Amino acid sequence: MGWMTSIFAVPRALIYWKREHARLGENGPLGDLTFRLYRFSFGLGVVAIVTGLWYGTWLGWPAWLHLKATLVLVLAAHYLWTGKLVRRAQAGEFRESDMFLRIFNEVSVFIVIAVLWAVVAQPFLMDARYLNAFTVLDYAALALLLLAWLGSSWIIEHPPAARPSTSKIMAQYRRVWMVAFLHRDPRIFDSQIVNSLRQSTAFFASGSMIAIGGGFALLGNAERLRGVAQDLTQATDPVIVWEIKIFVMLGFAVNAFLKFVWSHRLFGYCSILMAAVPNDPEDPVALPRAQKAGEINVTAGRGYNRGLRSVYFGIASAAWLAGAVPLFVATLFTLGVVLRREFTAESRAILLETTDGMPVFPPKK
To answer: Which of 41, 113, 263, 359 could pair with 303 in a Cys bridge, judged by C-beta atoms 3.0 to 4.6 Å apart?
Structure first.
């Protein structure tokens, strides 16, 4: 998981390295941190591949393990390609756009999920009757869950200009905070807030890890879970059906873990940038560095919110254990709660008040 986390983190860090290079005209602290992260994770990748080959040999290389090995090779190719981008960045060469790096970053997450699916479902060992155990209603409920999860994130992060979301409004306050921090003396108050935010992300990352461990424990005891479900719902589905449902929950937990870990790291970047701001607010580099810290702070907050939404919809996915209809209900309820908090909550109305003299949602320059 450590290697997979770095596969996810380094392409995203390249985006901010690129922006830093454009502002400074040379590589700064973000570039050095990104390179160190890639170099450290290389050893983790070697350990992961060697132990995987040993495990495959021990099992006799069943068919599903060939699929897993292929996916890991794709991950390794992704990792080596990332190394090529890192080497270019060290030379001050950034050819790829931010959009390309974001997509390149997200691709690794889907590959990791596919690896976990291959390990858990062992697809080439499944009988066709197992797939037939899922009804059209099951597939529709699962599609609604994924659509609600992805769609809500898109709407919240790209709201209509006339109706900004709470997250969008708070992003502007984060930027204002970093500018106000310039003139605060002492600045220990601001460092304590950032430290509190890091502790929050660490707490949820730890919780996600516990959820992942619990999910794998359930997979190892799916027969007992099926017995409990039969007592409650009279369902007679095979064990593999329950394992797939648990795997969906695991997918949300893994995504939440990756988002929280990356958010934690970004808040660390923000702390470093804040420390690099000169004490003299009139220093010509003070404001640009504070604004840079503000943008990193906004990005960290966005990752944190994405992790929370994964937790929300991951909890909703647990309703699938009781059937397709409960999953429909849980998904719609969760979607309603998420959108209400972003667009109709009382806290949003308070933030939109202009009594503090702040233009809450000015166009970003």
So the answer is: 263
